[in-house]
Design a protein that fits this description.
heterodimer; A: 491 residues; mainly alpha; 3 strands; 74% helix; globular; B: 639 residues; three-stranded mixed β-sheet; 28 helices; 76% helix
Chain lengths: 491, 639
């Protein structure tokens, strides 16, 4: 296993910046709103730049785990503070940085309990960063839970539309997931007999018997998979998205769901590869159902955010299908799709956020004719919709295409079904675009100003990222494949 | 086919053809939304550049420079390799010329047509985007790159059909076009996936090579070819995915001329031509293609016979002519199909652009209405539209005659005479409906009736404003296209020599075989035109066609053989009311319902348990006493 130690602890710096930001916010008086916003923006900006730096500074020739920091934490129990990044986690770090930064900017106009809101957001993202960079099971679990709990408050306090229900449902679901993961982790720790939580040490072959792996993998798959919105454990996701405020939806759908898929990959597939191979067919079935089911259920929705919520179910199904193919191409596509979907859905929610904040409705029949009133604001919405239906030269297209190609080879039937869902996805996305944006000018909303250029900044960042990776997908694939080829060769 | 470096002059020229329009699109969208003149200048400038490089390529490769290909890696993921590049062979170069010529002319024409439109800059941005995507499609050396740009021209089509997005019908038509072509594209993608899983590579030249074709089993070959043909059905609006194209006429008329008749919809036929060796390797697939082309051609010809909307007539005729091209290709006539594509692009663009002048002038699409308002007084467009209609009908010496005759000749070479018969009927009907429209325009007659209100005017923003400058701008492209229509037929030999030197000999050979065919073709067209004259053009004619005398037939034709109704029903009852509702209900009732009741159960059992801890202390003491007593008794008797 190639591990390159860090010359400078970039990864810890990211975490420390978040912690510093959190402390800074806590120490600022609650009424100084703009100071709090600036602190969070600064914190988000620094972490975004750092993660982008890591993404581009990663040595693709050497590959393996880089920027590693390994400090024994509780030596008697084998707990290590072990952070490192590889081709799987780098795209996730970059995604987190971008969505964090744009999410904070998208919530710039928040006036209600500003201090608490930004404090919780920073705490949440701290957990997410930690989860993506950690290679120690103990820390992975800790970070995972750190990222889940702020969600409850963020939705229950700042949310809308059945917010208590949504927050409670989400929390219960995710805790149920944790309840499956924890025993699995404890079992891994005790049964291995190595007295270590180190993922890399635990993922060496021959440590667990095939039956053990089968048992562990299904626990981990469902436990983390709940967070990734696998069918039929997906219903928390649309409800949660709808209830959450804009910035939280962005982080939630953009990053948090990826934690689930990443957990399946990093913990499940790394430690129990044979279990993965055994359950891959089930994964493919559930993923395909998710893809098809998501688009059909989305067709029936009348609430803008529900539509996006179901599109997330469908798009995360593509991630699942990619993981289930057991091929390098499938893994590449799945990880790319995690990134692309994160960016796309963040753009979606930020666009809807502007519309909802000003029209005070998310109901599609009540909207319409918005392009005449706010051409810029609806541009972002339409752009996100086009990304969602897989228009070429936008990031999602390549992810979907590569997943389809590999899925079709491994599971011709499921691959075919997933491809067919493309047609329906075009139908429901364009239907929503037509009903909300097009049509004659709506006098009800005629007084609403178009989005200003400064408020457009986060959306512009997201659009440019989508276009950048759409035009030059190899930037992303070159990074991912350093990890995926090593991983598949090891099997 | 040699692979070459990026610095090869042909490759550089190809890059200069495809890339500048994209840049123009980005620049206009970002910076020139409010600068109408600059936006148009940029779009037309890049279009002119593309035209020049395309002509340069034609001259260069037409004079014997061998075909070249350039490919660079776009992305590599495991064993999936997607490349971007350009192939410069006769097929791509002829199509490139067709596309760039029509693009340039239509953009010049639009200067006049769209002059007063508030979305002027946006219009030119989309046009530039389309041109970039279409040229890149034509130049694609691999099927995956072709698919990428195939989707992008579809997007351009969506945006341009729904250009006047305030109008519900326009945005509806755009959506319909995108979704219906998407259905075809799904098949196309699946076809590519089948090929990929057997070959691992989608390079077009390799696909067409004998080695690859022989390596595939006949079943796989037929299946993949038919799936790819599904994409062609969607894009070229063939049966059964044809109803989006007439609706697409909601877009501005120059858009209909460019995308929905001359170039974008012809991309399907182009793909057929591109993969011609692969397609011809499967005779089953070729028969299916032939059947689909024939059905589309005949069905839409009947629809065109009863339409009152000038653009709809040409739209039906486009589908019908595309079907005719597919028949030609599927009958084995590579040159016949591609030559008809070329001539059709010219005269159909001319037809649309002339109709645009009428629509612009009279603010209606209804031919009877136009005629009543004095359409024949617009001498110049009337003259050109007659030329174009004659070409469509296949009257010599206009271009359509030559290409149609080629196709009929191919059909006559088939074993089953039915195909030739279908072609003959199609030719008569085509001639009939083209001249029906011309005679209606020329002779304001009795059958005015009430203007059909369902035929909307093109845009509310268009008034009666036509200064001389805009008339010149709209007139020059007409003149040029008319010249092309009149003359291009005589370049048939050069064309077939450019495309495939061997085929020329075959064609000449076939021509000897059936010497009466040209006379048949002329006879057919003239009889169709005469029929139209009897019903519509003759002094004192009632201007009621034979199809309109029978209400059932009329309704059948006017309702597009009820295809739209059937699709609507399927969409409402199977998709929305069936699968989609089932999924949504399942989510609400089954998944969430069971979870919510589980949660409620947990809360309720908690309530019951909590009751034990809270109220009624006497009862609790009493029950405690009873329990202790029972336990005591139990232990007493047990002992």
């Amino acid at each position: 296993m190639d591990i390159t130690n860090a010359q400078f602890p970039f990864l810890s710096t990211i975490l420390l910046v978040c912690i510093a930001g959190l402390l800074g916010i806590l120490c600022t008086p609650g009424h100084r709103h703009s100071m709090i916003r600036w602190i969070s923006t600064l914190c988000a900006g620094i972490t975004m730049v750092l993660s982008a730096y890591l993404f581009f500074a990663y040595d693709k020739v050497t590959g393996g785990y880089q920027f590693a920091e390994n400090i024994p934490w509780v030596p008697s129990m084998g707990i290590q503070y072990f952070n490192a990044v590889d081709g799987f986690s780098l795209p996730m770090l970059l995604l987190t940085g971008i969505v964090f930064f744009t999410g904070v900017l998208a919530m710039w106009d928040l006036e209600y309990r500003v201090k608490e809101f930004f404090g919780l957001i920073v705490l949440l993202v701290l957990g997410v960063y930690g989860m993506f960079m950690s290679l120690d099971l103990f820390f992975i679990f800790i970070w995972y839970d750190v990222s889940l709990f702020p969600m409850y408050l963020l939705i229950a306090v700042w949310g809308s539309t059945r917010k208590e229900y949504g927050a409670m449902k989400l929390t219960l679901y995710l805790l149920a997931g944790s309840a499956l993961i924890l025993p699995a982790l404890v079992y891994i720790y005790t049964a291995s007999g190595l007295n270590t939580f180190n993922v890399l040490a635990l993922s060496q072959s021959g440590l667990f018997s095939t039956d053990q792996q089968k048992f562990l993998f299904i626990l981990i798959y469902i436990g983390f998979g709940i967070l990734a919105g696998i069918w039929p454990f997906h219903t928390w996701s649309p409800v949660g998205h709808v209830a959450a405020p804009t910035g939280v939806s962005m982080i939630h759908a953009g990053v948090l769901m990826k934690i689930g898929a990443f957990g399946v990959l990093r913990v499940g597939m790394f430690i129990c590869p044979e279990g993965w191979q055994y359950w891959a067919h089930l994964m493919a079935v559930l993923a395909t159902i998710g893809i098809v089911y998501g688009v059909f259920a989305g067709l029936q929705q009348t609430d803008l955010k529900y539509v996006i919520g179901y599109s997330s179910v469908s798009h995360m199904g593509i991630v699942g299908l990619g993981l289930a193919t057991m091929t390098v191409e499938g893994l590449n596509g799945a990880v790319f799709q995690m990134f692309a979907h994160g960016i796309m859905t963040a753009l979606f929610f930020s666009a809807v956020g502007y519309i909802y904040d000003h029209t005070h409705t998310k109901s599609i029949p009540e909207l319409g004719g918005l392009t005449k009133i706010m051409p810029r604001a609806t541009f972002y919405f339409i752009f996100a919709a086009l990304t969602g239906i897989g228009v070429p030269c936008l990031a999602s297209f390549w992810a979907e295409l590569t997943v389809f190609i590999s899925a079709f080879r491994t599971y011709p039937l499921y691959g075919t079904l997933a491809v067919c869902a493309l047609a329906v996805s075009a139908l429901y996305m364009l239907r929503v675009v037509q009903r909300t944006c097009y049509g004659p000018k709506n006098d009800k909303f005629a007084h609403i100003p178009d989005i200003s250029l400064t408020r457009s900044i986060p959306r512009m960042i997201l659009v440019s990222v989508i276009v950048l990776f759409g035009l030059f997908p190899s930037i992303m694939f070159d990074i991912i494949r350093t990890a995926s080829t090593t991983f598949m060769n090891r099997l | 086919m040699t692979t070459t470096a990026f610095t090869h002059p042909s490759v550089l020229a190809a890059v200069l053809t495809a890339l500048p329009p994209f840049l123009a699109f980005v620049l206009i969208m970002l910076f020139l939304q409010r600068h109408r003149v600059l936006a148009a200048a940029l779009a037309i400038g890049t279009s002119g550049l593309s035209l020049c490089t395309a002509v340069y390529l034609l001259v260069r490769h037409g004079s014997g420079v061998p075909a070249v290909q350039y490919q660079a890696e776009w992305l590599v993921s495991g064993n999936i390799k997607i490349s971007a590049g350009a192939v410069l062979d006769p097929t791509s170069i002829f199509m490139l010329c067709v596309v760039t010529v029509i693009c340039f002319l239509v953009q010049v024409y639009s200067l006049g047509y769209m002059a007063k439109d508030p979305g002027f800059s946006r219009y030119y941005a989309y046009m530039a985007f389309f041109e970039g995507a279409m040229t890149a499609l034509v130049l694609s050396p691999s099927l995956l790159q072709l698919y990428v740009f195939w989707e992008l021209v579809g997007l351009a089509s969506y945006l341009l059909i729904g250009f006047w997005y305030e109008k519900f019908s326009a945005s509806e038509a755009g959506k319909k076009a995108f979704v219906m072509t998407r259905l075809g594209d799904v098949a196309f993608l699946l076809g590519m996936l089948v090929l990929l899983s057997h070959l691992g590579n989608l390079d077009i030249n390799e696909l067409n090579s004998a080695g690859v074709i022989n390596a595939l089993s006949p079943g796989v070959l037929t299946m993949s070819v038919l799936l790819i043909f599904g994409g062609i059905i969607g894009k070229s609006a063939q049966f059964p995915l044809l109803t989006w194209l007439p609706d697409a006429m909601e877009g501005p008329t120059p858009v209909s001329a460019l995308l929905h008749s001359a170039t974008m919809v012809a991309a399907g036929v182009f793909l057929f031509a591109r993969l011609f060796p692969l397609f011809s390797a499967s005779s089953t697939a070729m028969s299916v293609c032939l059947a689909i082309g024939t059905i589309s051609m005949l069905l839409t010809s009947t629809m065109a016979m009863v339409s009152r909307d000038i653009k709809k007539v040409w739209a039906y005729s486009t589908i019908s002519q595309l079907g005719f091209m597919i028949m030609g290709l599927a009958a084995g006539g590579f040159v016949a199909g591609t030559f008809h594509l070329t001539t059709h692009a010219g005269f159909k663009a001319l037809l649309f652009l002339c109709s645009g002048v009428f629509i612009h002038h009279y603010n209606t699409n209804d031919i009877f209405e136009m005629s009543r308002m004095g359409a024949k007084s617009l001498k110049i467009p009337m003259f050109f539209i007659i030329i174009a209609a004659a070409a469509l009908a296949g009257i010599p010496p206009f271009s359509g005659f030559f290409s149609k005759e080629l196709i009929l000749m191919q059909l006559s070479g088939l074993d089953n005479p039915l195909w030739l018969a279908a072609g003959v009927i199609g030719a008569i009907l085509t001639s009939y409906y083209s001249f029906r429209l011309i005679f209606i325009l020329l002779r304001p007659g009795a059958n005015m009736g009430a203007a059909d209100r369902s035929i909307r005017t093109n845009s509310n923003t268009h008034g009666h404003h036509h200064d001389s400058r805009s008339e010149w701008l709209m007139g020059l492209p007409l003149l040029f296209l008319a010249l092309v229509t009149v003359s291009i037929g005589f370049f048939q030999d050069q064309f077939s020599h450019l495309l495939s030197p061997e085929a020329t000999a075959d064609a000449a050979h076939a021509a000897e075989h059936i010497s009466w065919l040209p006379f048949l073709a002329v006879g057919l067209c003239v009889s169709g035109a005469l029929w139209a004259w009897v019903e519509y053009g003759r002094r004192g004619s009632a201007q009621i066609g034979i199809a309109e005398r029978l209400p059932v037939i009329r309704a059948l034709f006017a309702e597009r053989w009820y295809m739209d109704k059937i699709y609507r029903w399927l969409l409402d009852h199977v998709i929305y009311g069936g699968v989609s509702r089932a999924c949504a209900t399942n989510d609400k009732k089954v998944i969430d319902g069971s979870l919510d009741s589980f949660a409620r159960g947990a809360v309720d059992s908690g309530k019951i348990l909590s009751k034990l801890h809270m109220t009624n202390i006497q009862a609790k003491l009493m029950s405690a006493f009873v329990i202790i007593l029972l336990l005591a008794l139990y232990s007493f008797f047990e002992a």
